[in-house]
Amino acid sequence: MKNETDLEMLRHSTAHVMAAAVCRLYNDVHLDIGPSTDDGFYYDFDLTDRITPDDFHKIEKEMKAIVKEDLPFERLEVSRAEAESMLVGQKYKLERLADIPEGDVITFYQCGDFFDLCRGPHLESTGQIRAFQLLSVAGSYYRGKETNPMLQRINGTAFTNDKQLGLYLKQLEEAKKRDHRKLGTELDLFSIHNEVGPGLIHWHPKGARIRSIIEEFWRQEHFRNGYEILYTPHVGKANLWETSGHLNFYAEGMYAPMEIDKSDYYVRPMNCPFHINIYKSGLRSYRDLPLRWAELGTVYRYEKAGVLHGLLRVRGFTQDDAHIFCTPAQIENEVKEVIRFSNTIWKTFGFEKITAYLSTRPEKAVGEQDRWDQAIVSLKSALEAEGIPYEVDEGGGAFYGPKIDLKIKDAIGREWQMSTIQFDFNLPERFDLSYIGEDGEKHRPYMVHRALFGSIERFFGILVEHYGGAFPAWLAPEQVRVLPLSEDQLDAADDIAVQLRKEDIRVTVDHKSGKIGAKIRNAQMDKVPYMLVLGAKEIESGMLAVRDRTGAQEDMTLIDFIEKIKNAVQTKA
């Protein structure tokens, strides 16, 4: 395959082959949809037999037989009546057919005796499919609604050759080892409790310590880059969300209101209306701008139970939100600074590969054309100035403004969508924002929404997986563990810990009885960056036996060790 579009076509064609194989192997199969995904494909089935991973071998065997038959993918253009006749007994497909507007072309794709309602496109034939594997099966509600029937979703992946498939499968194995839910339990970082509610995170001391380090760094960097920090309420009256448009366009993602003093209040799904009200609390002049306001604001959004996923998809989370209010003359420089700032932050956390996606004006949009043009030019200029490669999604912007999405690649090559820089021509109009220009007249400011991490929870989950739980010394919740050889060294170990804490070094002492080998293994399993092995010899000589989690060892004085840790923290190593 030459590009992503070809790979998407390969995967979609493989989904059809999988569906054809399932129809050959099982009776009374009801089909729904089978699209390609970023990493592969899936198909949703309704059938009496319960498919398990033990069945994958026979399904893959049948798929290989269909590939070997080299069946052409034939496009069939049919009338609605013909389509209904072809889909007799296929209730889900008939409902999907009903979604196609009157007058639109209706197409099927056929390979051998299998045909599917589908827009395509597809490969020329099944013989062009080279390397694939089925990965998992799970329940999936029809159309994603919990009140609808539960279907069986078989997930798989496909690549152009066995080498690429093998590399991807190795990445999956590595991802399993790094799964933040697994490491979160093993390293005692966080938990979720059903008696409290799904999607609501409990931060344990170690996880909370890392979070506090991240937040402290975030605040310091924002102050250094000309931002001010805000704190705003967690709830707001219904009329606030009516003005912002959330109650009209986003009500399904908001929680039910609570009545206070005979008025409806909603827990906030977003922070922006509060920042806007602070802007409106006084008369603003062009001399006051730009205003850069940031907040670590906790928001609450209703997510369906089926999509909740550890820290990556939750119902309560803290956005690292910021809003920039500026004049048209200031906007290009402001966007450049946001891109530069984002780039610096990501590299500090160990993410070197950053790409961008620029979404431009859709057909239906608010705001004057010249504002859109200026905004898009400023976004492009900022990306090019920082040397970040980007792709343009023509017409893919929100109705209220163009945006940039920054994506990072983690240690095992997975891409994550993170920072967003979003122009907004809608809310300034809805809230009637203005500033007094040099001419003494009122003007509408530019407003930019900006999030670096997106949310602290999701970023933390990605960070756990990026480092495999082995955080660098500056982030590690426990930087040092002192390991006394016996009870005779406990007092000396505690004294060393006191001296290290005075230097703001995060340290614990292993007071358990047991052999030193077991203590070292425990510290390595807890991924502690440094261990100080302390015996009679070390106490007498005044030299510490320093061991890092990779097994490397060296002897040094306490003063030199403190300097080593401080240097690691200062350089973010």
Overall form: globular
**What would CATH call the homologous superfamily of the largest domain?**
Bira Bifunctional Protein, Domain 2
Structural class by helix and strand composition: alpha+beta
Gyration radius, in Å = 28 Å
The count of helical stretches stands at: 18
Largest sheet: 8 strands, mixed
- How many separate domains? 4
Please report the first level of CATH classification, the CATH class of the largest domain.
Answer: Alpha Beta
CATH architecture of the largest domain: 2-Layer Sandwich
* Widest sheet, order of strands: 10-14-15-22-19-18-16-17
Give a short overview:
This protein is α+β, with helices and mostly antiparallel strands. It has 18 helices and 27 strands. The chain has four domains: 4-175, Threonyl-trna Synthetase, Chain A, domain 2 (Threonyl-tRNA Synthetase, Chain A, domain 2); 211-232 and 271-467, Bira Bifunctional Protein, Domain 2 (BirA Bifunctional Protein, domain 2), CATH 3.30.930; 234-269, no CATH class; 480-570, 3-Layer(aba) Sandwich (Rossmann fold), CATH 3.40.50.
Task: Give descriptors for this structure.
573 residues, alpha+beta, Threonyl-tRNA Synthetase, Chain A, domain 2, BirA Bifunctional Protein, domain 2, 4 domains, 5-stranded mixed sheet, globular
